[in-house]
Write a structure and sequence with these properties.
The complex is a heterodimer of chains A (328) and B (260).
Chain A lengths: L6 E10 L3 E11 L4 E5 L6 H8 L7 E6 L2 E2 L4 H7 E4 L11 H11 L4 H14 L15 H12 L6 E5 L7 H16 L3 E6 L2 H7 L2 E6 L2 E6 L1 H8 L3 E6 L5 H8 L5 E2 L5 E5 L7 H10 L4 E7 L3 H9 L20
Helix pairs in contact in A: 3-4, 8-11
Chain B lengths: L2 H18 L2 H22 L15 H31 L1 H6 L5 H29 L7 H30 L2 H5 L2 H9 L12 H9 L1 H14 L5 H29 L4
Helix pairs in contact in B: 1-5, 2-3, 3-5, 3-6, 3-8, 3-10, 5-6, 6-10, 6-11, 10-11
The chains are: A alpha/beta (328), B mainly alpha (260).
Chain lengths: 328, 260
């Protein structure tokens, strides 16, 4: 294993014909062993960045290394170190899952027997044993993604690139894939994950970079990013609306009061859940009867809104409608 | 064996298996040539030798067989091209490019698949022809030269298909060139000898490299001794194959550099 970070870029840039700056000076530093979330709306530059890091597209500016190998200077070493599962599971409908895995193993210089064994292992790993000898054309979307992931894992890559791995998947398939990503990361694989789903980044990524218009607009752990945007908000629903004044008096010392609906009291809680015992005690001491408590954390969408003035996820969060455009 | 050779063989095998499992790719290249051959043979009966300009053959089938073989290879070339375009559309191509696979093998694997299919198809057509009474006058030597010609032509047409795929990235666009291949064949001596043609049609057939290829193929079937047509055909085939490989390679590198 070569020295160096899993992914490191400095001023990485890709300008397409016609002057479109799809990626416009991106600096990233992904440590080994991380799950790094690369979050942004459609067309933000996520896929273009990943295509460059996967040696599929030449950068037009800046520099980058993957697993310690320079992207432009030694692309062959980069390719030996990475596994890639790009948008739209890249598989051949006329082959069976087992045949595709075996082919991929042979392409990675496995012997025929070693390739067969590896195919069996991976089919078990992604739970496709029963469908192994069926043509991929008959697979469901979730099965294709799992096979795509298995294909990316044939050579036990150091760094795994997953480009929108769950776009268009049903919730259960999505959970299955998330669990597999966690397991891989637990085994030491660095995962570079692009997504347009906030929840996916929140669930999986230790660190997140948000990209918009080809530039990084925010970077940090999900908790840090949310903390930059603001504090959690507590909303207390009162059993008896006439006690609003008493409740406000009791809570005033714990956090800044916020405007809210009648019958409720809202306040900013900088310490979040850690302040809840004090809140309950204060309300109890004041004799206020409580019907509900709701602690709302800022979301990554709030982070995105704060940095760009727009919401990240499309209205309705329609996963199928969000099918990304074909890479240029 | 060097990794590039192993990878070429593995990708070539996949190309063959993929085509055999795709009836819509396989059927036209078998069906059209055989049907045309049957129609021509049926309409001209058994005595083309009486038509001025025709070479002395025993029956029209002997004459038409080379045309059918050539037609099958041309259609096979568009299949290779559209299959390659499907790989590009579907992302299989990207997976290969992002893997430590020899760049050459990505290209030669697909062309090797086309060559293998073309040679198998040539043997099949010869067998069908013989079953219906044709005779390969050139014997074993003739069959071997036919296979070499088929392989070279397959390199040229698969190469052309691959170029179209790399430039357009669309299987539909590649399939759209199908009529072009047909035109190329009709304006050649695939179905009638150039000696029977006149005027602009003859000029086109004289200019069309396909004429020389089909005449070299036919030479193996109807002549006991190879004539100059064999040498000319082999020369044209080598030149076309080399040109197609060079052009496919440069289209491939242009695509890899993202300069499309």
């Amino acid at each position: 294993m070569a020295e160096g970070r899993a992914v490191e870029t400095e001023g990485l840039e890709r300008v397409f014909k016609g002057g479109i700056r799809a990626v416009d000076g991106v600096d990233l530093a992904v440590e080994r062993g991380e799950v790094f979330g690369f979050l942004g709306p459609n067309g933000a530059g996520k896929s273009t960045t990943v295509r460059m890091l996967a040696t599929l597209l030449q950068p037009t500016g800046g520099r980058a290394s993957v697993a310690g190998h320079d992207l432009v200077g030694d692309p062959a070493a980069v390719r030996r170190s990475i596994g890639v599962a790009l948008q739209d599971a890249a598989i051949d409908p006329y082959m069976t899952g087992r045949e595709l895995l075996h082919l991929q193993a042979v392409l990675h210089s496995f012997s025929r027997d070693a390739g067969r064994r590896r195919a069996v292992e991976l089919l078990a790993r992604v739970d496709l044993e029963a469908a192994a000898d069926r043509r991929v054309g008959t697979y469901s979307g979730g099965m294709r993604r799992r096979l795509d992931l298995a294909l990316a894992l044939v050579h036990e890559p150091e760094v795994l690139f997953l480009d929108e791995p769950t776009t268009g998947l049903d919730p259960i398939s999505r959970l299955t894939l998330w669990n597999e990503v966690r397991r891989l990361n637990g085994e030491g694989t660095t995962v570079f994950l692009t997504t347009q789903y906030l929840e996916e980044a929140d669930q999986l990524a230790g660190r997140v970079a948000i990209i918009d218009g080809g530039r990084i607009v925010a970077e940090g752990t999900p908790a840090q990013l949310k903390a930059q945007v603001g504090d959690p908000t507590l909303t207390v629903t009162l059993a008896d609306g006439s006690q609003a004044q008493a409740a406000e008096d009791a809570l005033r010392a714990l956090g800044e009061l916020l405007p809210c609906r009648t019958g409720t009291v809202a306040l900013r809680l900088p310490a979040g859940a850690a302040s809840l015992p004090a809140v309950v005690r204060a309300l109890d001491d004041a004799g206020v009867a409580v019907a509900g408590l709701d602690l709302a954390e800022p979301t990554l969408d709030d982070v995105f809104v704060a940095r760009t003035g727009r919401h990240l996820e499309a209205e309705g969060d329609d996963a199928t409608a969000a099918a990304a455009p074909a890479p240029a | 064996m060097s990794p590039a050779v192993v990878q070429t063989a593995a990708l070539g095998r996949r190309a063959v298996v993929g085509t055999l499992r795709t009836p819509q790719a396989l059927v036209p290249s078998l069906f059209f040539p055989l049907v045309l051959m049957a129609i021509f043979t049926g309409s001209f009966g058994g005595a083309p030798g009486t038509i001025p300009g025709f070479p002395p053959v025993r029956g029209f089938l002997d004459f038409a067989l080379a045309g059918a073989i050539l037609q099958g290879i041309l259609i096979g070339g568009t299949s290779a091209g559209s299959a390659f375009a499907l790989d590009i559309e579907g992302g299989f191509f990207d997976r290969l490019v992002a893997s430590p696979v020899s760049r050459t093998a990505i290209l030669t694997g697909r062309i090797l698949g086309g060559v293998t299919l073309a040679m198998a198809q040539t043997l099949l057509f010869l067998a069908i022809g013989v079953a219906f009474g044709a005779r390969v006058e050139g014997g074993v030597r003739g069959v071997l030269i036919l296979l070499v010609l088929a392989a070279l032509l397959a390199v040229a047409v698969s190469g052309l298909g691959v170029i179209l795929a790399l430039r357009t990235g669309s299987a539909e666009a590649v399939q759209g060139t199908f009529p072009l291949f047909f035109a190329l064949m009709f304006f050649s001596s695939a179905f009638f000898p150039r000696e029977t043609m006149t005027g602009w049609f003859k000029v086109l057939a004289d200019l069309n490299p396909i004429s020389y290829l089909v005449e070299a193929m036919r030479d193996q079937i109807i002549e006991t001794e190879a004539t100059s047509a064999t040498l000319i055909g082999l020369g044209v085939a080598v030149a076309l194959a080399a040109l197609a490989l060079w052009a496919a390679n440069s289209a491939f590198h242009r695509r890899l550099e993202g300069d499309r």
